[in-house]
Amino acid sequence: MPGISKSIDAFRESPTRRIDAIRERLKRERRDVIVLSAGQPSVPPPRDVRMALGEELLGDDMELFAYTPSQGRRELREAISDDLRRTGGVEVDPDDLTVTAGGQEAMFATFMTILNPGDEVILMDPTYFGYKPILEYFGARIVRVGLDMDDGFKLDVEALKEKVGPRTKAVVLVSPDNPTGSVIGVNEVKAVADLAVDRDFWIVSDEAYRMLIYEGSHAYPYTYAPDRVISINTFSKDPGMPGWRLGFVYGPRELIGRIKLAGEEMTYCPPSISQRLALLYLRSREREAHVRRVVEEYRARRDALMQAIKRFLPEAKFQVPHGSMFVFMDLGKYIDDGDSFAEHALEKHGVAVVPGSYFSDRYKQAVRASFVWEPAHRLEEGARRLGEAAASWKGNPGRRE
Amino acid sequence: MPGISKSIDAFRESPTRRIDAIRERLKRERRDVIVLSAGQPSVPPPRDVRMALGEELLGDDMELFAYTPSQGRRELREAISDDLRRTGGVEVDPDDLTVTAGGQEAMFATFMTILNPGDEVILMDPTYFGYKPILEYFGARIVRVGLDMDDGFKLDVEALKEKVGPRTKAVVLVSPDNPTGSVIGVNEVKAVADLAVDRDFWIVSDEAYRMLIYEGSHAYPYTYAPDRVISINTFSKDPGMPGWRLGFVYGPRELIGRIKLAGEEMTYCPPSISQRLALLYLRSREREAHVRRVVEEYRARRDALMQAIKRFLPEAKFQVPHGSMFVFMDLGKYIDDGDSFAEHALEKHGVAVVPGSYFSDRYKQAVRASFVWEPAHRLEEGARRLGEAAASWKGNPGRRE
Lengths: 401, 401
Known about the structure:
Chains A, B: Residues 32-371 form the Aminotransferase class I/classII large domain. By secondary structure, the first copy, chain A, is an alpha/beta fold.
């Protein structure tokens, strides 16, 4: 085989994909698995919207099948702009945003556009595992700011300030957070925005879960530092079409123009069919009611899982998530290693979670559990199985042989 | 604004996008434009297939909306493998191919996977304009092999051999070709395959138009050098869903695994809805009849355009295209510069073509015209307008003032 790229080694099998592979095998063996590992919604987009799209499929208009502008269709960008104003009070001109093939392309194109080798990027710890391989690929140095579960994973702006140096190119904020479910408060957002202006770095603000908040509200960093914020967004969580690959980025117009060109080279344009569904959804009378229903449903499931954890894993440490889809539990009282525990729990007890090490250098005895994929009674059963897995864990100090 | 990447300057507004922008303006001014610039089909996928997908949209199964494996769904990869065997006699194991978010992602992920800065990549001249910015971005040196219209743009293997050196990482073949419509013969394909094995370089084989052949047949390079060929494919031209962003790459398994990981970082997975449509299409009884109908339709349109060119642009030089969607015409007898002529033709005469300079350093007085987007009577009108534009061209030696 002729040679390959030296940089591409940064890319390894995604951690959740490894869990998925074991799940696939257990599925073939027809074993029942409680899936607490999935980072995707269980509620599809509103039926009316799907019906409308289904009808359009029958027309012979090539428009639905044709390429779109690489920035995304104008009508969709206008609808997104209106939606940001209505749901968040944020003013984003349709020309200051570009539509992407999912949040993943939004992330990749953003860092492709801003990074030079040797730049430093500050990540929280824990944080979403998707950032690390991209930053490594572009030759950035990752600097971590630790968050403490005991403080509710609150962002410590002073600790962040200490990490900012002359090579700091960007700080990544994920709120509502994956994996902790914490929501950054408006005071912290303002303080980071001031710091970004003062020290001239980008805030890459991952707002994938902005509509999934159970207590509190979302603070939009763009409001406080429009020249420094690149906001990453997705339609994967709301309205719930993760496989359809649609997201968007907004920020300073000049930068957005560059990100658009990066996306054009990567995928030419965002999927036209997905753009159409998103437009029908944002313009639908169902839009707000859908979010309300989904949030209520997920909140009830979260509460069910919290109750079940308290019952079956009474020594688990966790913060009640105020947003997103996940609870991040420290199982240090039961286990000594989250990675092998996750495999053990899946293989022996039929419950899938994601190990804490995928998100953190600090919480290696933690696991991430999603409360939105399975219905309440199966969330309870999942917690019961996790309790069983913890009890049978080889390193469990209190394990009954 | 904090700084941006130094490498990203390789990305500029795509040439066809610039033509599109003028077209958009003329559309707003409600001027009729004959579109010979579009590189996309005018026939949507079969109605039965669209109807089946529309019905699935009404189900509440999250499967249609969920993430898929980053390599694409197993059933789709099996269907693609079967289809390659049936339509081309090529044996490709479903594990030796990865599904991508369109041919563009296939191209980008391929070069991301194989290139190191300073590598040389050999492109034909003329060739598809999409390769240059990607190669420049990854720091490759582009080496060109000229093709002559007088020889029917036939690939001269001896000339290619002279350009192969110790730094040659890949040779890009596009057949059926964009922009010339030429089809590389089996002897040339075999000779390049032998050379690739002998000199150990990759053949990046762009087979986007493999089903759109009007005379002759497609030679599959993979058949002759399976360890050296990376085959780039798309569902944009067949069945005609360019905006839905779906393609695939096949080649040596180890490399495909790497390209899959690159795609996973870029877009996480190919669009699930598009995968579903492609699967329904490939498994449909309509599949072969659809291709036959489309090829007949496009052949008739091609013939109409050829006739009209002979009538309205009798001094245009061109080869009758045997495949793809385009004719590449040298208008050197009428004009001195294809770029300004294309703008002139669009602005003053309402006919859109793509300048030859986008594809070639040699044919700067040429233009590319698509014969598949407009119906026959409008192709004729388009040629008439081109003739008028040529007659009114300021640099035209025979121009009547």
